[in-house]
Amino acid sequence: MRVLAAMSGGVDSAVAAALAVDAGHDVTGVHLALSPDRQTLRSGARGCCSVEDAHDARRVADELGIPFYVWDLAERFTEDVVDDFVAEYAAGRTPNPCLRCNERIKFTAVLDRALALGFDAVVTGHHARLEDGRLRRSVDAAKDQSYVLGVLTPGQLAGARFPLGSMTKERVRAIAAERGFAVATKPDSHDICFIPDGDTRGFLTRRLGSAPGPVVDAATGATVGTHEGTHGFTVGQRRGLGIAVGDQRPRYVLSIEPVTRTVTVGTAELAGVDVVRTAPPTWTGEPPVLPLRAEVQLRAHSAPVACEVTAAPDGGLVLALADAQRGVAPGQSAVLYAPDPVRGDLVLGQGTVRS
Fold first, then answer.
1. pLDDT over threshold 80, residue 230
2. Any binding-site annotation on 130?
3. Site (Interaction with tRNA): which residue positions (predicted)?
4. Residue 252 — φ and ψ, nearest 5°?
5. What is the pLDDT of residues 182-212, one digit of tens each?
6. Domain 210-271: CATH architecture, name and number where available
7. Which of 5, 63, 276, 342 satisfies CB 3.0 to 4.6 Å to 123 for a cystine?
8. Which residues contact 178 (CB under 8 A, 6 or more apart)?
9. What is residue 47's predicted lDDT score, i.e. its pLDDT?
10. What is the pLDDT of residues 245-288, one digit of tens each?
11. Average of per-residue pLDDT across 128-144
């Protein structure tokens, strides 16, 4: 099989490429240049796709003896991921840029180009499993990335390979060390790659400017603070609200209204929701018969919760949650998993949260 190994410069993609070589595939490595100013995109474990990362990826490719190229997708990444991220926050929603990058860059732009060039599949270092064409969680629950892959279609999954899904991260690093890869101890990237200083609010303010408005308490209707822009908040947020409430009870962001510039906060009792509505879903396999019982993961690092899934008249989904959840933000992905306790790692699909 002729495969393209997406090599970020990290340990996961390095080992994924090595395993593809070990499997006897004809492997070519490619590093994605996703920023017009790559010198600024890494600070320790923050950021990615820097010149440093490209050099790390090239060194691994050289050690594996495989061809290596750099593809400049900076313009596409800016339009499909960065600009989308800013627009979503401006609209009062909370996007997941990693999910969007997988959907529009790695498994659309890259996979489409790879197939056009005659490759059979794209190999990545994602911690997830593919069995009989179906997406499942990684065996390493702490590193599982199936949530950000839940948006992929059956056609995209057919062209994907995830060699790391059956092993732990510790094993991945051990393989890298055994092979003498310099990236064996390289820190994992975290946070948002195009905001290397981790200051999301500052990044959005530089893009969107200041737009002051009130912070209103839901119980009393009283203004309990002010803000410099609704883009600095996300539903479920507790810290950094800049408010003063007499009863000293913690407040959470309940809703964001960009038009009126109003951020509404409330107590924990008001922050819980037991019904979630989504946009029309993307299924990873054949669309299931609705209604159905499933488990849903509502944020990248949240625990799944049991739910009943029904179809909405507009083509979306209605998720009736078994237990009320806080921090369910419009714009996030509601990823559905099969509820079977033995095979409950099967990803059914996802819908973007509307309300």
1. yes
2. no
3. 126, 332
4. -125, 150
5. 999 998 877 788 888 889 999 999 999 999 9
6. Roll (2.30)
7. 5
8. none
9. 54
10. 878 889 999 999 999 999 999 999 999 999 999 999 999 999 99
11. 94
The pLDDT of residue 166 is 95
**Helix or strand or coil: residue 98?**
helix
Q: Which tokens hold the place of 123?
A: 């190999």
Whether 8 has a binding-site annotation, put simply, is: yes
Separation between Cα atoms, residue 177 and residue 155, nearest integer Å: 35
Do 210-271 and 273-352 have matching folds? no
Q: Confirm or deny that 1 is annotated as ligand binding.
A: no
Judging by DSSP bridges, how do beta strands 42-43 and 46-47 pair with one another? Answer: antiparallel
Q: What dotted CATH number matches 2-185?
A: 3.40.50.620
Residue 7 known to bind ligand:
yes
Residues listed for the chain: 355
120 is written with which tokens? Answer: 């059979």
Q: How far apart are CA 96 and CA 202, in angstroms?
A: 18
CATH number assigned to the domain covering 273-352: 2.40.30.10
Backbone phi and psi for residue 66, each to the nearest 5 degrees, phi listed first:
-115, 150
Domain ranges of the chain: 2-185, 210-271, 273-352
